[in-house]
């Protein structure tokens, strides 16, 4: 497949209201290679800090961590558009800091877009990054980088005040030039209303089936997540069980001395 065949951010943008957009997170070369034929978007989410590195929240992600995983995913992605998350602390404080961080991630990974969390509060950052030629995916609703500040994973859109804020955030990120927006952990009718209202695609997670696309954390989707799995997640495979079973079989063979070591494979040649 040539580089031209890759789903571009413009192509994703044009999918508004059309064929649903398929997105999964990926953090490593093998998983990116396996998912790539089946998805439009691969998101190198800052969920990597929790899923692969065992941190309690996404606040454990750093720019270096995102770049390392972004590079690995880019090596495995041939068709999908690859978006890399900007970690907490890399963009909120100022437009200049956001621009410098986005440039580093974009240049050092070769990814196609960056994602950052927030609405009206980060509209300036989104506009500046887009003006610099770097496509931006926005992320509104439940924002995992704010869970400590928010006192937990709280669903959004349950009060008039919250709905008003969500609609303002949605309008702000579209106006700032985002090519798409993730809506996470949001009451279904509100996510559906935002999808109707915006001209850019919405990508839902724990939001609404009426979003223009859906995203899941890959380890949740394949049943590999060890700790907390959100209630709305459907597990399409049960790899925890498979991995445990493989480790048990291996341990049993090692202990029984039936493990096929080099002595079985590289037998001395029979010279007779
Ligand atoms: O970090 C992540 O994986 C995300 C998705 C859950 C949207 O932001």
Characterise the protein shown here:
This protein is an alpha/beta fold. The protein has one domain (about 5-240): TIM Barrel (Alpha-Beta Barrel). About 40% of the residues lie in helices and about 15% in strands. It contains twelve helices and eight strands. It has helices at about 10-15, 30-35, 50, 65-75, 95-110, 125-130, 145-150, 160-175, 190-195, 220, 240-255, 260-265; strands at about 20-25, 40-45, 80-85, 115, 135-140, 180-185, 200-205, 215. An eight-stranded parallel barrel has the order 1-2-3-4-5-6-7-8, surrounded by five helices. Strand 3, helix 5 and strand 4 form a beta-alpha-beta unit. Helix 2 packs across helix 4, helix 4 (about 65-75) runs parallel beside helix 5 (about 95-110) and helix 6 runs parallel beside helix 8. The chain is elongated and about 85 Å long. The relative contact order is 0.12. Bound molecules: 3-methyl-2-oxobutanoic acid. The site of 3-methyl-2-oxobutanoic acid has 13 residues, from strand 6.
List segments where confidence is low: pLDDT < 50 over at least 5 consecutive residues. Answer: none
Give the overall shape, derived from the CA principal axes.
elongated
Report on the biggest sheet: 8 strands, parallel, barrel
Structural class: alpha/beta
Q: In percent, how much strand structure appears in the residues?
A: 5-15%
CATH architecture: Alpha-Beta Barrel
Q: What is the CATH domain class?
A: Alpha Beta
Listed once per kind, the bound small molecules are: 3-methyl-2-oxobutanoic acid
Give the spatial strand order of the biggest sheet. 1-2-3-4-5-6-7-8
Q: List the quaternary state of the chains.
A: single chain
CATH topology: TIM Barrel
The count of helical stretches stands at 12
Q: What fraction, in percent, of the residue positions are helical?
A: 40-55%
First-to-last CA distance: 53 Å
Using the CA coordinates, give the radius of gyration.
21 Å
From N to C, what is the helix and strand string? HEHEHHEHEHEHHEHEEHHH
What is the domain total for the residues?
1
| Number of E-state strands | 8
Mean pLDDT: 94
CATH superfamily: Phosphoenolpyruvate-binding domains
């Amino acid at each position: 497949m040539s580089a031209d065949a890759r789903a571009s951010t413009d192509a994703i943008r044009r999918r508004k209201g059309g064929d649903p957009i398929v997105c999964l997170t990926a953090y490593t070369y093998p998983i990116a290679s396996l998912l790539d034929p089946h998805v439009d978007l691969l998101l190198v989410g800052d969920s990597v800090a929790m899923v692969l590195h065992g941190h309690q929240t996404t606040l454990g992600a750093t720019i270096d961590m995102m770049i390392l995983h972004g590079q690995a995913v880019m090596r495995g992605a041939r068709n999908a558009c690859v978006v890399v998350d900007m970690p907490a602390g890399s963009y909120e404080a100022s437009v200049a800091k956001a621009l410098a961080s986005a440039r580093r991630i974009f240049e050092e990974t070769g990814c196609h877009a960056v994602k950052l969390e927030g609405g009206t509060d980060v509209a300036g950052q989104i506009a500046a990054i887009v003006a610099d030629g770097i496509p931006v995916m926005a992320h509104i609703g439940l924002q995992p980088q704010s869970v400590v500040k928010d006192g937990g994973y709280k669903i959004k859109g349950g009060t008039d005040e919250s709905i008003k804020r969500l609609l303002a955030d949605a309008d702000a990120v579209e106006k700032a030039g985002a090519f798409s927006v993730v809506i996470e952990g949001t009451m279904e009718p509100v996510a559906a209303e935002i999808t109707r209202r915006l001209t850019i695609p919405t990508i839902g997670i724990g939001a609404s089936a009426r979003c223009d696309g859906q995203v899941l954390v890959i380890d949740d989707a394949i049943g590999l997540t060890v700790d907390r799995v959100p209630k709305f997640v459907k597990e399409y495979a049960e790899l925890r069980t498979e991995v445990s079973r493989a480790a048990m079989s291996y341990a049993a063979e090692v202990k029984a001395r039936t493990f096929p070591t080099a002595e079985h494979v590289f037998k001395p040649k029979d010279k007779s």
